[in-house]
Structures are given as C-alpha cells and as structure tokens.
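User: Just a sanity check before I run the rest of the batch. Below are the structure tokens for the first item. I only need the designed sequence back.
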C-alpha cells in the first residue's frame, strides 16, 4: 500500500480534511474547562458566549438572523428537520394531505425524508424531473405547484455532478404561484464555493454541514426564517429555542463558523485555482478512449466537481484499482455499508445504465495540488487500460 504522503485525495465532496485553522480554534475552546451553555457559572457563560458568537458569524455568512440559526448534527439531520419540522408544526391540515415537491436529483437525506413523510401518511411526495444536465425542470415545477404544496426542496448544487440549480428562479416560481409552500435548499455541497447569502436569498430553509468545508464531522446548521413554524424532532431540554433539544457542541459550532468564514474569505481565489486544476484534469482524461463527461463543460457547476463515465469499465473495480495506488475518488452515492448503489441522479438525467456503471466522481478542494493532478493523470488512464485488458 502507498505511504500516506503518496495519497492523492480527490474526494472532497464526500468529506474534506479538517483545516488547521479550524483545529486550532476548536483546541482553544477546550484550552480551559468548558461548561454547559445553559448553566450560570463562569465556564457555562464562556460556553454560551462562544456558541452565540459562532451563531452570529454563521448567520451573517448565510444571510439569516442569528435567531434563525439552529445547530444540528449535520446535513442529514438538517434535511430531516426541514422536511418534518414545518410539516408537523400545525398538526394535520383538513382534507387531502399536503404535497412535498423535490427535484429527482436531491441528496438521499432529502429524498428519503420526503418518502418517509409520505409513508407515514403526512404528505404526498412528488419528484420533479430534471433536464439532461440535472437541472430541475422549471415548467414541471410551475405545473405542480398548487394550494396544497407545503414544501419545495431544490438543492443549491448537486453532490454527485456539482451542477448548480436555478434557485432564484425556483423561488420566483413558488412566490408567483401563490402556493403556501416553503422553499428548502440543501446547500451542503455548495457551501465551499457559493455565496450562500446571495444564492439562497428568498429561500425559507437552508441546510449546511461543517465537514464539507474543512470543519469537523458531526456539526451542521439549519437556517429557518422567522416566518416558518418548525416543530422539533428531538425532544428534551428545549435548546435552540425549543427547535432542537440536546446540549450543543460548542467547539463544533466554533469550528463550523471558522470554516465558513475561511471559505467566504477565500472563495474567489479558491474557486479560480480549483477550477483551473479541475479543467486540466478533465482535459487530460478526455484523451482516454471511451471517456464520457457526464455534464458538459458549458453547464455551470461547482469548480471542484468532475464527473466522468467510462464505457466497458465497472466503477467498483476502477475505484479499487485507483485506491491501490493511493488515489481517492468516489462512485457517487453509497449506503451505510459502503456498498455502491445505482445512482438515482444519473438515472434522472437519462444516462444509459451501461454508461452509468462506469461513473466516477473526482472532487477537488483548495488543498488539491498540481502534484495531485499529475498523479491522477498518470494513474487513471493506466487503471482504465488495465481493466479493459482483463478477460
């Protein structure tokens, strides 16, 4: 197996390395005894101050008021709370169940939350089609909106392909329809490179996760506009203004705030550098026979995403081969066991199943180097060729 120094990490969409600045900030939190933020003694007061300072910072960067920020355990909990919280806040409405609309390419945290709500009889869940690039069909959205539409869920950027969704047009369509729907955007993948305050203006609920932006695992946020009624789904001491019980992870909240601040400060230069390396990788791998770029380069995507498919190559075998030479990439969605599943994103985009079986997601971050790209350009063609030579 390769030494750690030889690892080429191109899987930033799955999780990002903890940034040193974040680690130092979290260590400073624990430099002296940390109390429970709900207490009254000195250590508790310090914890509460740190928590609220982190909340203020995050709110400003996301475009919400501090009181509209709810700390969670990550993007999955935020998505569940965004779906179930408004749905159950007022009790079951009379008549037919409310309708949840979501793009067919949403993250499983959103898809499965909507499906679970439907299975429990709380709502009707309707998937909205997308175009061949994976962007939500605005015409289908307009046609589906109605007086019983309770939620429209459209992610800011797709986790597999990196495609940016037309959030502003989604919000406009919802408001113009007169439907009483709330708009929820899973911004987990977009956070490193997108100005969320601008992109999510007009959005009612926004979900984030720290470990996608160089922060710690196990911390997230749900931004909830003050106009949205939200029922808690974790019950207990009534923390987070009775919207999410449980003692807050103060160090995690500080880490998230620092990571988000760094991303915002460095966004323009980081996006330029990452996109340049991504494009160099794409150009080099395009020469490999049978390479198919899932999303054309003309379609706006996150700067770090490169989604490719290879004819006649199984992604599981290719990922293993790349892993053996220290290159970390992803096949897309995975289940809890780690086994690869068929991609609902690629299916919704109409990609043929035989081509989708060879899909690999390379995702770069600010820490990706020219040496990483050079190693990938050497490793991937060799691995594809070797797999095709197998009987």
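Assistant: Here's the designed sequence for the first item:
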């Amino acid at each position: 197996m390769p030494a750690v120094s030889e690892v080429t990490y191109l899987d930033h969409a799955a999780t990002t390395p903890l940034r040193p600045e974040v680690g130092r900030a979290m260590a400073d939190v624990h430099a002296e005894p940390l109390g429970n933020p709900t207490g009254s003694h000195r250590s508790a007061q310090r914890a509460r101050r740190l928590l609220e300072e982190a909340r203020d910072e995050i709110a400003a960067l996301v475009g919400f008021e501090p009181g509209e920020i709810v700390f969670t355990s990550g993007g999955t909990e935020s998505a569940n709370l965004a779906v179930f919280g408004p749905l159950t806040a007022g009790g079951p409405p009379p008549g037919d169940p409310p309708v949840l609309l979501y793009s067919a390419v949403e993250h499983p945290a959103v898809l499965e939350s909507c499906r679970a709500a439907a299975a429990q009889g709380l709502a009707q869940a309707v998937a909205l089609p997308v175009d061949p690039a994976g962007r939500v069909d605005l015409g289908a959205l307009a046609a589906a909106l109605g007086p019983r539409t309770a939620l429209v869920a459209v992610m800011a950027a797709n986790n597999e392909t990196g495609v940016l969704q037309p959030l502003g047009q989604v919000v406009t369509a919802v408001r113009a329809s007169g439907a009483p729907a709330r708009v929820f955007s899973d911004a987990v993948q977009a956070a490193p490179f997108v100005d969320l305050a601008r992109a999510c203006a007009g959005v009612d609920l926004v979900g984030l996760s720290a470990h996608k932006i160089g922060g710690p695992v196990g911390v997230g946020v749900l931004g909830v506009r003050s106009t949205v009624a939200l029922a808690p789904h974790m019950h207990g001491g009534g923390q987070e203004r009775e919207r999410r019980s449980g003692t807050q992870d103060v160090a995690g909240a500080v880490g998230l705030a620092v990571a988000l601040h760094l991303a915002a400060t460095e966004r323009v230069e980081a996006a330029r550098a990452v996109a340049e390396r991504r494009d160099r990788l794409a150009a080099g791998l395009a020469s490999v026979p049978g390479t198919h770029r899932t999303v054309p380069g003309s379609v706006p995507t996150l700067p770090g995403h490169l989604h490719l498919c290879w004819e006649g190559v199984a992604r599981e075998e290719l990922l293993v081969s790349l892993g053996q030479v220290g290159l970390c990439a992803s096949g897309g969605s995975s289940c809890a066991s780690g086994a690869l599943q068929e991609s609902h994103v690629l299916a919704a985009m109409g990609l043929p199943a035989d081509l989708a079986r060879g899909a690999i997601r390379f995702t770069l971050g600010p820490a990706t180097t020219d040496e990483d790209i050079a190693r990938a350009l050497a490793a991937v063609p060799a691995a594809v060729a070797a797999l095709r030579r197998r009987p």
